[in-house]
Amino acid sequence: MAEDFNDLELEEDFLTEEERYIEEFKKEDAKEAEDDSFQEHHDDMSQHLWMVSFADLMTILMIFFLSLFGYAYSGTSTQYEKAMASLQKDVASTKGKSVFENKEKEADAAMQMETFIKEKKLAEYAKVETNAQRIKISLSNPILFDSGSAELKSEAVPALKEIAHLIRSMDNPVVVEGHTDNVPMSSAKYRSNFELSAARAFSVIGYFINVEKMSPEKFSAFGYGEYKAVAPNDTDANKAKNRRIEINIIRKT
Asked: For the chain, first and last CA: distance in Å?
């Protein structure tokens, strides 16, 4: 190698001025070509670096949407709603964060009530429904009132106490609705199912105010008689479904 280099130096010594100029030009041209090739390779690499970030983003989005699909498929709407509220809260501005904190709190209350119903094996008589406007807790009369009566049964207290525990820390308005079946009212105390359903709604509110010492300002009551049935009044089982109290926690927007 040393001999070749020495030979090359010796050859250059015998070159004319013009031949040396041509050799220098060739060397510079080769170096520029090498530099251009390196720059082109570097630019090509830079142009494709965005694909790494894009692939990471697609992976994260796929996991996110699979999680949402899992929640939706499982039918646990309150869990889905709580997860969504938690995500929205994390990305919301400081001003909007309190809105999603309230939504998360509301969804958490609905989940706690669902857990209570499951643990106490009350699914036959109680259920929780959630939508954008309200959280509705429906309780059938077998655990609340005797037939034709608006006086709360002792069996109703554990469920109402749990509901009071949930809504005590919330400043949401609460609307209590009373409903009956279509059996004509024969009591001397109540002239119609309207009166009976309203009296039952007021009995529930009375429990929250007088026993649980909650503020009366957040409560209102309505009696709908037999006119908002959830099942045809054609069997005893369906009539039992229609004799119910609905406690609506009105959601804030």
From this structure: 83
